[in-house]
Each structure stands twice: as structure tokens, then as C-alpha cells.
Amino acid sequence: MTPAWAKVLIPIVLIAIGAVLVWAFSLAALEGGDRLALIALERVPESGVSNPITSVLLNFRAYDTLLEVAVLLTALLGIWSLGPAAPAFQPASPILGGMIAWVVPLLILSTGYMLWAGGHAPGGAFQAGALLGAAGVTLALGGDASAGLPGETRLRFLSVLGVLVFTAVGVILMALGYGFLTYPEGYAKWLIIFIETAATLSIGVTLAAAYLGGEPRDERTSRSAT
Amino acid sequence: MITQFLYGGSGILLFLLGTWSFIVHPPLIRKLIAINVMGAGVFHTLVALAYRGLTAPADPVPHALVLTGIVVAVSATALALAFGQRLDRDHGSSADDD
Question: Which cell locations does it reside in (chain B) (predicted)?
């Protein structure tokens, strides 16, 4: 247990840290330069998409996003290496099952919308992937042992698809004489949508698989087990 | 301006509460929740910093940073939960007790 002196000292130190943070926040908020914001907003029209956040994520700082997709993949590999998944939940009652049958197609439809909307409005690969993952989680909660995910081989392929396509686009652009992930003029929009589509599939599959929390079971073994 | 400080201040408050909980509570699951609360506070503050008034567009860079951060936080949490589950399975529930 925490000793008595720590019970007094910890809040005091935290309040002091808080005071410094509020001071720093007010400095940044009151006279914060918009140096980066100006540069970013100025060049949005060149980025192929009109949503500034998507142009930062997929164009100006595409490296970050590539590595981010890789972080998701790494986490999933870590989860898979810890052993098999917990047994499935009990099958849903007819009412819940009926609701799931409605909600999951709607979620998949919204995934497509969110992916497309990312170009000009709030949205994008990560939001769309989260919706796709939510569809998987909903299925898992309804008692589907595989959360609607495909068999092991295809699951493994889908989970690396985002990193694969992202890196491939970068390397091919490099081979063509542009920089790594420097999109040529006129193609930026379609390249971004191509990458985002692959990333969405990967993110959705990764989130649903992470929710199951164990390595994928081979189709044959899971069939014989059930 | 007041709105911005309200958001930024509550973000800092969330961060501090999370830090306090992380230090004080020994159970691992509570520490994990505390880290997530800390992260939520940081995201809150960053988004508040991106605010440029109602007429000007917000700074897109902190928004992109927050999106990245959320994804990393979610994957780290998922991995930590899987670790916890494995600890539980190998050592019974003793690893989780106070």
C-alpha cells in the first residue's frame, strides 16, 4: 500500500505539474504560432483531398500513418502470439440476433461511406476501420466464434494488406523517380483512396481479431471443435 | 477563448487524475484504465490547442496527431489486456489481486 507521506506528497506534486501544464497551455493557446497550420492549410489543394486532416495523414505525413498501421499489426501479432482465443460467447437470443442482422450490414455500409467521406469531410481510413471493427465485435458479442472474420490464411493476408499496399505504393513511386510516398500530381487522390481502402480493411480486421484476443484457429479444427 | 480553456483545462485535469490513479492503485487493470484516462486527457488538450476560433479552420496537424494517438492507444490497450489474460491463465487470479 501507499505510505502515508506519499498520500500527501503525490497530490501536491501533481497539482504543481498541473499548474505548469495550464501555464504552458495558456502560452500555446494565446500566442501559439500557426506556423505548421498555415503551411499545411496552404498546400491542402495540392494534396488531392480537400479535408485538411486527411491530407496531413495520408499525404504530408504519410510516413506516420504507415507506421501507425504497422503498430496495429504489431499489436495484433503480439496478441496472437499469446495463445488461443477465449471460447465464444453463448449464442444471442432471437431478439439480439435479429438486431445484429440489421446492425452489421448498416455498419459495413457506413464503413464505405466514412471511407469516401474522408476525402472532403471528417472521416477516413481509421474511422471507417473502426466501424468495420465494430461490426466484427457486434458479431462476436452475438456468439460468433470468429467475429465474421474469414479463415486463417485470408485473415493473415487481410491483416497485413494495409502495410503491404502502403509500402508497395511508396516503393513503386520511388522506383518511378518520385520520393517515397510523394504522390505525382493528378494521381494523389486515387492513390490516397487506394491506400485508404486497403488500410480500412486491415484496420477493421485487426480490431475485430484483437477483440477475439487469440491466434486464429484453423477452419478445420474450429469446425471439428464445434 | 473561454471554451478553449475549458476544454484544455479539463484535458489537463483528466491527465492528472489518470496519473494519480496510475501511481496509487496497485491492480494492473486499474493502471491500464488510468493510462487510458491519461491518454484521453492528452488528446483533449491537443484538440483544444488546435482550435482557431469559429471562423478559421482548425490546425489539422494536432488533429492528425490525435488520430494517430488514438490508434496507438487502442492497440497498446488491446495488447496489455491480452497480456493480462495470459497472466491470469498462468498464475490464477493472484496476479490481479491487491
Answer: Cell membrane
